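This part of the workshop introduces the protein records we will be handling. An example says more than a description, so a record of this kind follows:
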Amino acid sequence: MKKLLETACGILAGLALFAIMVLTFLDVSGRKMLDHSITGSLELTELLMVVVIFGALPLVSERGEHVVFDSLDGLLPDALQKLQRALVHLLCAAALIGLAWLMWQTGSDFSASGETTAQLKILKAPFIYGMGLLCGFTGLIHLSMMFKPLDHEDAEGGVL
């Protein structure tokens, strides 16, 4: 399951980031050489950034790569650290699942009204639904991490 998560989310976020890079290159090149930019490039970049951010969110959560304030962790007993970790993951899961529900509702509203982007008239609902699904999935990851054993070697950005 972990490999599928890394592959699917990694490909999704990677392709979107690559598309942003190509779009930016072509837009700037067209502006400088042809005095004509790509119509709707800002809208496309915004939508692709949504895909990058929400596509990478499950990976960041699963790997524990969020910004962490852990300067007092060395002073806390393991039992308290486990409780703290479980509560933080529960809070993150609740927030993300709640956000997923709100996004799904917004996606339904946008789908019903036919909400589109201003210039290119791209439907917004599929992107909102995708954001909701990825937030919900990330919330489930946080729920599963509540019971992960405490690993003091786990800190990625620790000072040596």
Notes: The radius of gyration is 20 Å. Residues 78-113 form the longest helix (36 residues). The CA atoms of residues 153 and 160 lie 11 Å apart.
